Amino acid sequence: MSDTKSKEGGKTVVFRDQNMRTSYSNVVNVAATSEEFALLIGTGRSWHGRGDEFEVDLNDRVIMTPQTAKRLAAMLVNAIAQHEARYGKIDASAQPPSPENASMPPMGNA
What we know:
The chain is built from 1 helix and 5 strands. With about 110 residues, it is of the alpha+beta class. The chain is globular and about 55 Å long. The protein is about 20% helix and about 30% strand. Strands 3-4-5 form a 3-stranded antiparallel β-sheet. It has a two-stranded antiparallel sheet with strand order 1-2.
């Protein structure tokens, strides 16, 4: 892996990715206080909402300042607009495929 540089606010930001990990998520929840926002990130286990419960395995909790959360929101709005311009409108109500019926090849260890 390598470092990535970006210009932001007149300064060069160096993103170091040596310790970065990658995980998949199809569920996110947000909690907030006056001092911080927390993103609860996970993977839904009950793909079809069986019964009265929807089980989620939480993988990560990302805590950030309100200022960082606002910058994240702006970046997501921009990224979504670019994605939709390229690939078409995203249907946020669409359900992910069930793991039993998914036709994705197994991922190898990198």
